[in-house]
Inverse folding.
Protein backbone atom coordinates (compact mmCIF):
# COMPACT_ATOMS: atom_id res chain seq x y z
CA UNK A 1 0.00 0.00 0.00
CA UNK A 2 0.90 3.67 0.02
CA UNK A 3 2.35 3.25 -3.40
CA UNK A 4 2.31 6.93 -4.06
CA UNK A 5 2.96 8.15 -0.56
CA UNK A 6 6.45 9.46 -1.18
CA UNK A 7 6.31 13.09 -0.16
CA UNK A 8 7.16 15.43 -2.99
CA UNK A 9 6.91 19.19 -3.31
CA UNK A 10 4.07 18.69 -5.75
CA UNK A 11 2.03 16.70 -3.23
CA UNK A 12 2.54 19.20 -0.47
CA UNK A 13 1.66 22.33 -2.36
CA UNK A 14 -1.85 23.46 -3.12
CA UNK A 15 -3.14 26.99 -3.54
CA UNK A 16 -5.47 28.29 -0.88
CA UNK A 17 -9.15 28.05 -1.79
CA UNK A 18 -10.48 31.56 -2.23
CA UNK A 19 -14.09 31.75 -3.41
CA UNK A 20 -14.55 34.56 -5.89
CA UNK A 21 -16.84 36.97 -4.08
CA UNK A 22 -16.06 40.10 -6.09
CA UNK A 23 -19.12 39.76 -8.39
CA UNK A 24 -21.31 39.40 -5.28
CA UNK A 25 -20.05 42.75 -4.07
CA UNK A 26 -21.34 44.42 -7.23
CA UNK A 27 -24.91 44.27 -5.91
CA UNK A 28 -24.37 46.20 -2.65
CA UNK A 29 -21.91 48.55 -4.38
CA UNK A 30 -24.47 49.36 -7.09
CA UNK A 31 -27.26 49.77 -4.58
CA UNK A 32 -25.21 52.00 -2.26
CA UNK A 33 -23.99 54.10 -5.18
CA UNK A 34 -27.59 54.77 -6.13
CA UNK A 35 -28.54 56.25 -2.71
CA UNK A 36 -27.12 59.75 -3.29
CA UNK A 37 -28.27 59.75 -6.92
CA UNK A 38 -31.93 59.01 -6.18
CA UNK A 39 -32.22 61.99 -3.87
CA UNK A 40 -34.32 60.42 -1.14
CA UNK A 41 -33.97 57.23 0.86
CA UNK A 42 -37.63 56.25 0.45
CA UNK A 43 -37.36 56.50 -3.34
CA UNK A 44 -34.20 54.40 -3.21
CA UNK A 45 -35.96 51.71 -1.15
CA UNK A 46 -38.87 51.61 -3.61
CA UNK A 47 -36.57 51.42 -6.64
CA UNK A 48 -34.33 48.81 -5.04
CA UNK A 49 -37.25 46.51 -4.23
CA UNK A 50 -38.64 46.99 -7.72
CA UNK A 51 -35.24 46.09 -9.17
CA UNK A 52 -34.84 43.05 -6.94
CA UNK A 53 -38.36 41.83 -7.82
CA UNK A 54 -37.73 42.25 -11.52
CA UNK A 55 -34.36 40.54 -11.17
CA UNK A 56 -35.86 37.59 -9.30
CA UNK A 57 -38.49 37.01 -11.99
CA UNK A 58 -35.80 37.21 -14.68
CA UNK A 59 -33.72 34.72 -12.70
CA UNK A 60 -36.62 32.25 -12.50
CA UNK A 61 -36.96 32.43 -16.28
CA UNK A 62 -33.26 32.53 -17.20
CA UNK A 63 -31.90 29.85 -14.85
CA UNK A 64 -33.13 26.99 -17.04
CA UNK A 65 -31.83 28.66 -20.18
CA UNK A 66 -28.31 29.00 -18.82
CA UNK A 67 -28.23 25.37 -17.67
CA UNK A 68 -29.48 24.18 -21.06
CA UNK A 69 -26.66 26.07 -22.73
CA UNK A 70 -24.09 24.89 -20.20
CA UNK A 71 -25.06 21.26 -20.45
CA UNK A 72 -25.43 20.82 -24.20
CA UNK A 73 -24.20 24.08 -25.77
CA UNK A 74 -27.76 24.59 -27.02
CA UNK A 75 -28.70 28.19 -27.78
CA UNK A 76 -32.46 28.14 -27.32
CA UNK A 77 -33.85 31.35 -28.76
CA UNK A 78 -37.31 29.84 -28.37
CA UNK A 79 -37.26 30.05 -24.56
CA UNK A 80 -39.58 33.04 -24.68
CA UNK A 81 -42.49 30.94 -25.94
CA UNK A 82 -42.67 29.12 -22.58
CA UNK A 83 -42.92 32.50 -20.83
CA UNK A 84 -45.78 33.57 -23.08
CA UNK A 85 -47.49 30.22 -22.69
CA UNK A 86 -47.26 30.39 -18.89
CA UNK A 87 -48.67 33.91 -18.84
CA UNK A 88 -51.62 33.07 -21.11
CA UNK A 89 -52.41 29.94 -19.13
CA UNK A 90 -52.53 32.15 -16.05
CA UNK A 91 -55.13 34.38 -17.73
CA UNK A 92 -57.28 31.29 -18.39
CA UNK A 93 -56.93 29.78 -14.92
CA UNK A 94 -57.28 33.05 -13.00
CA UNK A 95 -60.04 34.21 -15.35
CA UNK A 96 -62.11 31.24 -14.20
CA UNK A 97 -61.40 31.97 -10.55
CA UNK A 98 -62.35 35.62 -10.30
CA UNK A 99 -64.41 34.85 -7.21
CA UNK A 100 -61.20 33.82 -5.52
CA UNK A 101 -58.91 36.51 -6.95
CA UNK A 102 -61.38 39.27 -6.09
CA UNK A 103 -61.65 38.07 -2.51
CA UNK A 104 -59.96 40.09 0.21
CA UNK A 105 -58.60 36.87 1.67
CA UNK A 106 -54.91 36.23 0.99
CA UNK A 107 -55.55 32.52 1.44
CA UNK A 108 -58.24 32.44 -1.27
CA UNK A 109 -55.97 34.52 -3.54
CA UNK A 110 -53.16 32.03 -3.07
CA UNK A 111 -55.56 29.15 -3.79
CA UNK A 112 -56.19 30.78 -7.16
CA UNK A 113 -52.60 31.77 -8.02
CA UNK A 114 -50.95 28.49 -7.01
CA UNK A 115 -53.01 26.34 -9.43
CA UNK A 116 -52.30 28.89 -12.16
CA UNK A 117 -48.58 28.56 -11.47
CA UNK A 118 -48.82 24.77 -11.32
CA UNK A 119 -50.75 24.62 -14.60
CA UNK A 120 -48.24 26.94 -16.27
CA UNK A 121 -45.32 24.82 -15.08
CA UNK A 122 -46.88 21.49 -16.10
CA UNK A 123 -48.00 22.65 -19.55
CA UNK A 124 -44.79 24.61 -20.28
CA UNK A 125 -42.75 21.61 -19.11
CA UNK A 126 -44.75 19.29 -21.39
CA UNK A 127 -44.42 21.62 -24.36
CA UNK A 128 -40.72 21.91 -23.50
CA UNK A 129 -40.37 18.14 -23.76
CA UNK A 130 -41.94 18.16 -27.23
CA UNK A 131 -39.84 21.20 -28.22
CA UNK A 132 -36.63 19.40 -27.24
CA UNK A 133 -37.56 16.16 -29.01
CA UNK A 134 -38.89 17.70 -32.22
CA UNK A 135 -36.97 20.93 -32.66
CA UNK A 136 -33.72 20.87 -30.74
CA UNK A 137 -32.66 17.22 -30.91
CA UNK A 138 -32.09 17.20 -34.68
CA UNK A 139 -29.68 20.14 -34.43
CA UNK A 140 -27.40 19.13 -31.54
CA UNK A 141 -23.91 20.49 -32.14
CA UNK A 142 -25.04 22.87 -34.90
CA UNK A 143 -25.22 26.32 -33.28
CA UNK A 144 -26.29 28.26 -36.35
CA UNK A 145 -29.15 25.88 -37.09
CA UNK A 146 -30.12 25.94 -33.41
CA UNK A 147 -30.53 29.71 -33.51
CA UNK A 148 -32.60 29.56 -36.70
CA UNK A 149 -34.81 26.64 -35.76
CA UNK A 150 -35.46 27.70 -32.15
CA UNK A 151 -36.41 31.20 -33.33
CA UNK A 152 -38.66 29.57 -35.90
CA UNK A 153 -40.11 27.34 -33.17
CA UNK A 154 -40.93 30.39 -31.11
CA UNK A 155 -42.64 32.13 -34.02
CA UNK A 156 -44.78 29.04 -34.63
CA UNK A 157 -45.47 28.73 -30.90
CA UNK A 158 -46.54 32.37 -30.62
CA UNK A 159 -48.85 31.98 -33.62
CA UNK A 160 -50.42 28.91 -32.00
CA UNK A 161 -50.92 30.92 -28.81
CA UNK A 162 -52.68 33.59 -30.90
CA UNK A 163 -54.92 30.88 -32.35
CA UNK A 164 -55.96 29.81 -28.84
CA UNK A 165 -56.08 33.10 -26.95
CA UNK A 166 -56.22 35.69 -29.75
CA UNK A 167 -53.72 38.32 -30.84
CA UNK A 168 -54.84 41.06 -28.49
CA UNK A 169 -53.45 41.91 -25.08
CA UNK A 170 -55.28 40.29 -22.16
CA UNK A 171 -55.38 41.96 -18.76
CA UNK A 172 -54.05 39.92 -15.86
CA UNK A 173 -54.99 41.85 -12.74
CA UNK A 174 -53.32 41.08 -9.46
CA UNK A 175 -55.43 39.27 -6.88
CA UNK A 176 -56.82 41.75 -4.38
CA UNK A 177 -54.56 40.83 -1.47
CA UNK A 178 -51.49 41.22 -3.71
CA UNK A 179 -52.38 44.81 -4.59
CA UNK A 180 -51.18 47.94 -2.87
CA UNK A 181 -48.03 48.70 -0.97
CA UNK A 182 -46.51 48.23 2.42
CA UNK A 183 -45.03 51.30 4.04
CA UNK A 184 -41.57 51.15 5.63
CA UNK A 185 -41.29 54.63 7.10
CA UNK A 186 -41.81 56.84 4.10
CA UNK A 187 -40.86 54.16 1.62
CA UNK A 188 -43.64 52.34 -0.19
CA UNK A 189 -42.91 48.82 -1.38
CA UNK A 190 -45.47 47.07 -3.56
CA UNK A 191 -46.72 43.84 -2.00
CA UNK A 192 -46.38 41.94 -5.25
CA UNK A 193 -42.74 42.91 -5.54
CA UNK A 194 -42.11 41.51 -2.09
CA UNK A 195 -43.90 38.31 -3.12
CA UNK A 196 -41.75 38.12 -6.25
CA UNK A 197 -38.59 38.45 -4.17
CA UNK A 198 -39.76 35.67 -1.84
CA UNK A 199 -40.69 33.33 -4.73
CA UNK A 200 -37.40 34.09 -6.51
CA UNK A 201 -35.39 33.38 -3.37
CA UNK A 202 -37.33 30.14 -2.86
CA UNK A 203 -36.58 29.01 -6.42
CA UNK A 204 -32.91 29.93 -5.99
CA UNK A 205 -32.74 28.05 -2.67
CA UNK A 206 -34.29 24.90 -4.17
CA UNK A 207 -32.03 25.11 -7.19
CA UNK A 208 -28.97 25.66 -5.02
CA UNK A 209 -29.92 22.68 -2.86
CA UNK A 210 -30.46 20.40 -5.85
CA UNK A 211 -27.23 21.46 -7.53
CA UNK A 212 -25.03 21.31 -4.44
CA UNK A 213 -26.58 18.55 -2.34
CA UNK A 214 -27.89 15.90 -4.71
CA UNK A 215 -26.23 13.54 -7.11
CA UNK A 216 -28.42 14.78 -9.95
CA UNK A 217 -27.15 18.28 -9.22
CA UNK A 218 -23.60 16.99 -9.17
CA UNK A 219 -24.17 15.39 -12.57
CA UNK A 220 -25.55 18.64 -13.96
CA UNK A 221 -22.57 20.61 -12.68
CA UNK A 222 -20.17 18.01 -14.06
CA UNK A 223 -22.05 17.84 -17.37
CA UNK A 224 -21.77 21.60 -17.79
CA UNK A 225 -17.98 21.21 -17.55
CA UNK A 226 -17.35 18.02 -19.56
CA UNK A 227 -20.34 16.05 -20.80
CA UNK A 228 -18.18 13.48 -22.61
CA UNK A 229 -16.51 12.50 -19.34
CA UNK A 230 -19.88 12.23 -17.62
CA UNK A 231 -20.91 9.75 -20.31
CA UNK A 232 -17.63 7.87 -19.94
CA UNK A 233 -18.42 7.47 -16.25
CA UNK A 234 -21.63 5.69 -17.26
CA UNK A 235 -24.30 8.38 -17.08
CA UNK A 236 -26.73 9.13 -19.90
CA UNK A 237 -26.27 12.87 -20.38
CA UNK A 238 -29.08 12.97 -22.95
CA UNK A 239 -31.65 12.01 -20.30
CA UNK A 240 -30.18 14.53 -17.90
CA UNK A 241 -30.45 17.20 -20.57
CA UNK A 242 -34.09 16.39 -21.25
CA UNK A 243 -34.80 16.67 -17.52
CA UNK A 244 -33.03 20.03 -17.32
CA UNK A 245 -34.77 21.29 -20.45
CA UNK A 246 -38.19 20.33 -19.12
CA UNK A 247 -37.42 21.87 -15.72
CA UNK A 248 -36.12 25.02 -17.44
CA UNK A 249 -39.27 25.26 -19.56
CA UNK A 250 -41.45 24.77 -16.48
CA UNK A 251 -39.57 27.55 -14.67
CA UNK A 252 -40.04 29.80 -17.71
CA UNK A 253 -43.76 29.03 -17.50
CA UNK A 254 -43.73 29.99 -13.81
CA UNK A 255 -41.78 33.13 -14.67
CA UNK A 256 -44.37 33.92 -17.34
CA UNK A 257 -47.14 33.88 -14.73
CA UNK A 258 -45.10 36.13 -12.47
CA UNK A 259 -44.08 38.49 -15.27
CA UNK A 260 -47.68 38.68 -16.49
CA UNK A 261 -48.90 39.57 -13.00
CA UNK A 262 -46.00 42.05 -12.68
CA UNK A 263 -47.06 43.79 -15.92
CA UNK A 264 -50.78 43.05 -15.32
CA UNK A 265 -51.13 42.55 -19.05
CA UNK A 266 -50.27 39.62 -21.25
CA UNK A 267 -49.38 39.90 -24.93
CA UNK A 268 -48.26 37.23 -27.42
CA UNK A 269 -45.03 39.20 -27.96
CA UNK A 270 -44.01 39.32 -24.30
CA UNK A 271 -41.76 36.25 -24.47
CA UNK A 272 -39.83 37.56 -27.43
CA UNK A 273 -39.35 40.91 -25.71
CA UNK A 274 -37.96 39.28 -22.56
CA UNK A 275 -35.74 36.94 -24.58
CA UNK A 276 -33.22 39.71 -25.21
CA UNK A 277 -33.05 40.41 -21.49
CA UNK A 278 -32.50 36.71 -20.76
CA UNK A 279 -29.52 36.46 -23.05
CA UNK A 280 -28.02 39.61 -21.56
CA UNK A 281 -28.40 38.05 -18.11
CA UNK A 282 -26.83 34.70 -18.94
CA UNK A 283 -23.96 36.35 -20.81
CA UNK A 284 -23.30 38.67 -17.87
CA UNK A 285 -23.45 35.77 -15.42
CA UNK A 286 -21.23 33.44 -17.45
CA UNK A 287 -23.03 31.02 -19.75
CA UNK A 288 -23.92 27.84 -17.87
CA UNK A 289 -23.49 29.33 -14.40
CA UNK A 290 -26.59 29.41 -12.17
CA UNK A 291 -24.87 31.55 -9.53
CA UNK A 292 -23.77 33.98 -12.23
CA UNK A 293 -27.29 34.00 -13.65
CA UNK A 294 -28.64 34.95 -10.21
CA UNK A 295 -26.22 37.86 -9.78
CA UNK A 296 -26.69 38.92 -13.43
CA UNK A 297 -30.48 38.94 -13.07
CA UNK A 298 -30.40 41.11 -9.97
CA UNK A 299 -27.89 43.49 -11.58
CA UNK A 300 -30.10 43.83 -14.66
CA UNK A 301 -33.19 44.40 -12.54
CA UNK A 302 -31.52 47.04 -10.37
CA UNK A 303 -29.86 48.86 -13.28
CA UNK A 304 -33.14 48.93 -15.25
CA UNK A 305 -35.01 50.50 -12.33
CA UNK A 306 -32.33 52.97 -11.25
CA UNK A 307 -31.72 54.06 -14.85
CA UNK A 308 -35.45 54.26 -15.55
CA UNK A 309 -35.81 56.74 -12.68
CA UNK A 310 -32.58 58.70 -13.07
CA UNK A 311 -32.17 58.83 -16.85
CA UNK A 312 -35.12 57.35 -18.75
CA UNK A 313 -33.36 57.71 -22.10
CA UNK A 314 -30.36 55.74 -20.82
CA UNK A 315 -32.75 53.06 -19.54
CA UNK A 316 -33.41 52.05 -23.14
CA UNK A 317 -29.91 50.65 -23.46
CA UNK A 318 -28.80 50.41 -19.82
CA UNK A 319 -28.71 46.60 -19.82
CA UNK A 320 -26.64 46.46 -22.98
CA UNK A 321 -24.29 49.00 -21.40
CA UNK A 322 -24.10 46.88 -18.25
CA UNK A 323 -23.25 43.81 -20.34
CA UNK A 324 -20.52 45.67 -22.21
CA UNK A 325 -18.96 46.92 -18.96
CA UNK A 326 -19.06 43.45 -17.37
CA UNK A 327 -17.57 41.80 -20.45
CA UNK A 328 -14.78 44.37 -20.65
CA UNK A 329 -13.96 43.46 -17.05
CA UNK A 330 -14.61 39.71 -17.31
CA UNK A 331 -14.86 38.62 -20.95
CA UNK A 332 -16.42 35.25 -20.06
CA UNK A 333 -18.95 36.68 -17.62
CA UNK A 334 -18.98 37.04 -13.85
CA UNK A 335 -18.66 33.32 -13.09
CA UNK A 336 -17.27 31.55 -16.15
CA UNK A 337 -17.85 27.81 -16.14
CA UNK A 338 -14.63 25.82 -16.39
CA UNK A 339 -15.40 23.97 -19.59
CA UNK A 340 -13.09 21.43 -21.15
CA UNK B 1 -5.29 -20.51 -24.57
CA UNK B 2 -7.58 -18.20 -22.55
CA UNK B 3 -10.32 -16.16 -24.21
CA UNK B 4 -9.28 -12.48 -24.44
CA UNK B 5 -11.27 -10.03 -22.33
CA UNK B 6 -11.28 -7.51 -25.18
CA UNK B 7 -10.96 -8.28 -28.86
CA UNK B 8 -10.88 -5.86 -31.78
CA UNK B 9 -11.19 -7.31 -35.27
CA UNK B 10 -10.71 -5.22 -38.40
CA UNK B 11 -11.85 -2.02 -36.69
CA UNK B 12 -12.06 1.04 -38.91
CA UNK B 13 -12.85 4.49 -37.51
CA UNK B 14 -13.59 7.68 -39.39
CA UNK B 15 -13.69 11.11 -37.79
CA UNK B 16 -15.56 13.30 -40.21
CA UNK B 17 -13.81 12.94 -43.55
CA UNK B 18 -10.67 11.45 -41.99
CA UNK B 19 -10.04 7.71 -41.98
CA UNK B 20 -8.05 7.18 -38.75
CA UNK B 21 -8.12 3.46 -37.93
CA UNK B 22 -7.47 1.12 -40.85
CA UNK B 23 -8.47 -2.30 -39.60
CA UNK B 24 -7.17 -2.61 -36.04
CA UNK B 25 -6.79 -6.16 -34.70
CA UNK B 26 -6.02 -6.33 -31.00
CA UNK B 27 -6.50 -8.80 -28.16
CA UNK B 28 -6.28 -7.90 -24.48
CA UNK B 29 -5.76 -10.80 -22.11
CA UNK B 30 -7.62 -10.87 -18.81
CA UNK B 31 -5.51 -9.83 -15.81
CA UNK B 32 -2.66 -8.38 -17.87
CA UNK B 33 -1.40 -4.88 -18.54
CA UNK B 34 -1.06 -4.26 -22.25
CA UNK B 35 0.73 -1.17 -23.47
CA UNK B 36 -0.22 0.45 -26.76
CA UNK B 37 2.80 2.25 -28.19
CA UNK B 38 3.27 4.33 -31.30
CA UNK B 39 4.17 7.70 -32.69
CA UNK B 40 1.94 10.76 -32.50
CA UNK B 41 -0.99 10.30 -34.85
CA UNK B 42 -0.58 6.52 -35.02
CA UNK B 43 -4.16 6.02 -33.81
CA UNK B 44 -3.64 5.06 -30.15
CA UNK B 45 -6.05 7.56 -28.63
CA UNK B 46 -8.58 6.89 -31.39
CA UNK B 47 -8.41 3.18 -30.55
CA UNK B 48 -9.27 3.86 -26.90
CA UNK B 49 -12.05 6.28 -27.82
CA UNK B 50 -13.44 3.79 -30.32
CA UNK B 51 -13.52 1.04 -27.69
CA UNK B 52 -15.30 3.49 -25.37
CA UNK B 53 -17.84 4.40 -28.05
CA UNK B 54 -16.85 8.06 -28.09
CA UNK B 55 -15.86 7.80 -31.76
CA UNK B 56 -17.85 4.77 -32.90
CA UNK B 57 -16.21 2.31 -35.29
CA UNK B 58 -17.37 2.55 -38.90
CA UNK B 59 -16.79 -1.18 -39.37
CA UNK B 60 -15.25 -4.18 -37.63
CA UNK B 61 -16.04 -5.97 -34.40
CA UNK B 62 -15.32 -5.04 -30.79
CA UNK B 63 -16.03 -7.86 -28.35
CA UNK B 64 -15.79 -7.43 -24.60
CA UNK B 65 -16.23 -10.26 -22.14
CA UNK B 66 -17.90 -12.34 -24.82
CA UNK B 67 -20.38 -9.69 -26.02
CA UNK B 68 -20.31 -7.26 -28.94
CA UNK B 69 -20.01 -3.67 -27.71
CA UNK B 70 -19.29 -1.86 -30.98
CA UNK B 71 -22.86 -0.66 -31.37
CA UNK B 72 -23.40 0.36 -27.74
CA UNK B 73 -23.44 3.92 -26.43
CA UNK B 74 -20.63 5.16 -24.19
CA UNK B 75 -22.68 4.90 -20.95
CA UNK B 76 -23.71 1.35 -21.86
CA UNK B 77 -20.08 0.41 -22.48
CA UNK B 78 -19.12 1.94 -19.13
CA UNK B 79 -21.85 -0.14 -17.47
CA UNK B 80 -20.33 -3.31 -18.99
CA UNK B 81 -17.33 -2.67 -16.72
CA UNK B 82 -14.89 -0.47 -18.64
CA UNK B 83 -13.32 2.64 -17.10
CA UNK B 84 -11.67 5.29 -19.20
CA UNK B 85 -9.05 7.87 -18.25
CA UNK B 86 -8.63 10.27 -21.18
CA UNK B 87 -5.42 12.00 -22.14
CA UNK B 88 -6.65 15.28 -20.65
CA UNK B 89 -7.67 13.35 -17.50
CA UNK B 90 -11.29 14.55 -17.68
CA UNK B 91 -11.20 16.07 -14.20
CA UNK B 92 -14.17 18.24 -13.24
CA UNK B 93 -12.16 21.23 -12.06
CA UNK B 94 -15.04 23.11 -10.46
CA UNK B 95 -15.99 20.09 -8.34
CA UNK B 96 -14.09 18.97 -5.25
CA UNK B 97 -11.99 15.82 -5.16
CA UNK B 98 -14.77 14.29 -3.05
CA UNK B 99 -17.42 15.18 -5.64
CA UNK B 100 -15.28 13.81 -8.47
CA UNK B 101 -14.99 10.50 -6.63
CA UNK B 102 -18.69 10.40 -5.79
CA UNK B 103 -19.55 10.82 -9.47
CA UNK B 104 -17.29 7.94 -10.41
CA UNK B 105 -18.97 5.68 -7.85
CA UNK B 106 -22.14 5.07 -9.83
CA UNK B 107 -23.71 2.95 -7.13
CA UNK B 108 -23.38 5.63 -4.44
CA UNK B 109 -25.76 8.51 -3.86
CA UNK B 110 -23.64 9.90 -1.05
CA UNK B 111 -19.96 9.51 -0.19
CA UNK B 112 -21.02 7.39 2.79
CA UNK B 113 -22.42 4.84 0.32
CA UNK B 114 -18.98 4.22 -1.23
CA UNK B 115 -17.36 0.97 -0.09
CA UNK B 116 -15.16 2.24 2.79
CA UNK B 117 -12.54 -0.50 2.39
CA UNK B 118 -12.23 0.26 -1.32
CA UNK B 119 -11.92 3.98 -0.60
CA UNK B 120 -9.20 3.30 1.97
CA UNK B 121 -7.38 1.18 -0.58
CA UNK B 122 -7.56 4.04 -3.12
CA UNK B 123 -6.31 6.49 -0.47
CA UNK B 124 -3.47 4.05 0.15
CA UNK B 125 -2.53 4.24 -3.51
CA UNK B 126 -2.92 8.00 -3.73
CA UNK B 127 -2.66 9.63 -0.26
CA UNK B 128 -2.77 13.14 -1.72
CA UNK B 129 -6.45 12.63 -2.56
CA UNK B 130 -7.34 12.15 1.10
CA UNK B 131 -5.45 15.28 2.05
CA UNK B 132 -7.17 17.39 -0.61
CA UNK B 133 -10.56 15.66 -0.32
CA UNK B 134 -12.57 18.89 0.04
CA UNK B 135 -10.50 21.00 -2.37
CA UNK B 136 -11.62 21.93 -5.88
CA UNK B 137 -9.99 19.47 -8.26
CA UNK B 138 -9.03 22.34 -10.55
CA UNK B 139 -6.47 23.49 -7.97
CA UNK B 140 -4.60 20.18 -7.95
CA UNK B 141 -1.23 19.86 -9.65
CA UNK B 142 -0.93 17.86 -12.87
CA UNK B 143 0.29 14.80 -10.99
CA UNK B 144 -2.50 15.00 -8.43
CA UNK B 145 -5.07 15.36 -11.20
CA UNK B 146 -3.69 12.23 -12.87
CA UNK B 147 -3.94 10.40 -9.55
CA UNK B 148 -7.53 11.56 -9.17
CA UNK B 149 -8.32 10.46 -12.72
CA UNK B 150 -6.97 6.96 -12.09
CA UNK B 151 -8.60 6.84 -8.64
CA UNK B 152 -11.95 7.67 -10.20
CA UNK B 153 -11.50 4.81 -12.64
CA UNK B 154 -10.93 2.27 -9.87
CA UNK B 155 -13.21 3.52 -7.08
CA UNK B 156 -15.58 0.72 -8.03
CA UNK B 157 -14.35 -2.62 -9.36
CA UNK B 158 -14.16 -2.59 -13.15
CA UNK B 159 -13.08 -5.32 -15.52
CA UNK B 160 -10.97 -3.18 -17.81
CA UNK B 161 -9.20 0.15 -17.46
CA UNK B 162 -8.37 2.21 -20.54
CA UNK B 163 -5.75 4.81 -19.66
CA UNK B 164 -4.39 7.33 -22.12
CA UNK B 165 -0.83 8.58 -21.52
CA UNK B 166 -0.79 8.75 -17.71
CA UNK B 167 2.83 9.91 -17.61
CA UNK B 168 2.34 12.82 -19.99
CA UNK B 169 3.66 16.09 -18.58
CA UNK B 170 4.43 14.64 -15.15
CA UNK B 171 7.59 15.24 -13.15
CA UNK B 172 9.92 12.21 -12.80
CA UNK B 173 9.13 11.82 -9.08
CA UNK B 174 5.42 11.70 -9.82
CA UNK B 175 5.97 9.23 -12.64
CA UNK B 176 7.67 6.90 -10.15
CA UNK B 177 4.63 7.26 -7.87
CA UNK B 178 2.36 6.38 -10.77
CA UNK B 179 4.46 3.33 -11.63
CA UNK B 180 4.25 2.15 -8.03
CA UNK B 181 0.47 2.67 -8.03
CA UNK B 182 0.03 0.74 -11.29
CA UNK B 183 2.16 -2.12 -9.93
CA UNK B 184 -0.11 -2.28 -6.92
CA UNK B 185 -3.13 -2.20 -9.20
CA UNK B 186 -1.75 -5.07 -11.30
CA UNK B 187 -1.65 -7.23 -8.19
CA UNK B 188 -5.44 -7.02 -8.02
CA UNK B 189 -5.68 -8.79 -11.41
CA UNK B 190 -7.21 -5.71 -13.00
CA UNK B 191 -6.92 -5.77 -16.79
CA UNK B 192 -5.38 -2.57 -18.15
CA UNK B 193 -4.88 -1.17 -21.63
CA UNK B 194 -2.41 1.68 -21.36
CA UNK B 195 -1.54 4.10 -24.15
CA UNK B 196 1.96 5.46 -23.69
CA UNK B 197 4.68 7.29 -25.55
CA UNK B 198 7.19 7.01 -22.71
CA UNK B 199 8.77 3.65 -23.49
CA UNK B 200 10.73 3.59 -20.23
CA UNK B 201 7.47 3.99 -18.27
CA UNK B 202 5.76 1.39 -20.44
CA UNK B 203 8.60 -1.11 -20.12
CA UNK B 204 8.37 -1.11 -16.32
CA UNK B 205 4.69 -1.99 -16.32
CA UNK B 206 3.70 -3.85 -19.46
CA UNK B 207 3.09 -7.57 -19.71
CA UNK B 208 2.17 -7.31 -23.37
CA UNK B 209 2.77 -4.62 -25.95
CA UNK B 210 1.14 -3.63 -29.20
CA UNK B 211 2.67 -1.05 -31.50
CA UNK B 212 0.56 1.09 -33.82
CA UNK B 213 1.48 2.91 -36.98
CA UNK B 214 -0.74 4.49 -39.59
CA UNK B 215 -3.95 3.35 -37.87
CA UNK B 216 -2.93 -0.34 -37.72
CA UNK B 217 -1.33 -2.66 -35.20
CA UNK B 218 2.10 -3.39 -36.66
CA UNK B 219 3.47 -5.49 -33.82
CA UNK B 220 2.03 -7.43 -30.91
CA UNK B 221 3.94 -9.50 -28.41
CA UNK B 222 5.36 -9.52 -24.92
CA UNK B 223 6.99 -6.47 -23.43
CA UNK B 224 9.98 -8.55 -22.40
CA UNK B 225 10.65 -9.46 -26.04
CA UNK B 226 10.45 -5.84 -27.21
CA UNK B 227 12.50 -4.51 -24.28
CA UNK B 228 15.22 -7.04 -25.00
CA UNK B 229 15.46 -6.43 -28.73
CA UNK B 230 17.04 -3.10 -29.58
CA UNK B 231 16.75 -3.74 -33.30
CA UNK B 232 13.01 -4.29 -32.98
CA UNK B 233 12.68 -1.07 -30.96
CA UNK B 234 14.57 0.83 -33.64
CA UNK B 235 12.40 -0.61 -36.37
CA UNK B 236 9.03 -0.09 -34.60
CA UNK B 237 9.57 3.02 -32.52
CA UNK B 238 12.47 4.69 -34.23
CA UNK B 239 14.35 4.79 -30.93
CA UNK B 240 16.01 2.23 -28.72
CA UNK B 241 15.31 1.90 -25.00
CA UNK B 242 18.86 3.09 -24.39
CA UNK B 243 18.06 6.31 -26.21
CA UNK B 244 14.98 6.84 -24.03
CA UNK B 245 17.00 6.55 -20.82
Amino acid sequence: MNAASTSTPVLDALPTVRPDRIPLLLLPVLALAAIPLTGSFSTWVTLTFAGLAMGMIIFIIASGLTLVFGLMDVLNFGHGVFITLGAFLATSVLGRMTGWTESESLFRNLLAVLPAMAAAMVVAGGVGLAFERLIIRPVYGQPLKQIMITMGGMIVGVELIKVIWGAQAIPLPLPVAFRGSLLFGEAAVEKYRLISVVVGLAVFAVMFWVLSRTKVGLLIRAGVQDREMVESLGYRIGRLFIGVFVAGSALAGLGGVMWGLYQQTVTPEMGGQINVLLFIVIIIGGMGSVGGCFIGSLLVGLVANYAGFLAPKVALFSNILLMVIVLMWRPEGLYPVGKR
Amino acid sequence: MSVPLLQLEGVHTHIGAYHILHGVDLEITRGELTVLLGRNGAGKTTTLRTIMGLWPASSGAIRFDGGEIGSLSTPEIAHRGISYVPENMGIFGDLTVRENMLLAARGAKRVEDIDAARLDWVFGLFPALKRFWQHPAGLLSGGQKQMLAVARAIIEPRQLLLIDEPSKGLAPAIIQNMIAAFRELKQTDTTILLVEQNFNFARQLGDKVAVMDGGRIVHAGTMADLAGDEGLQQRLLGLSLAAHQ
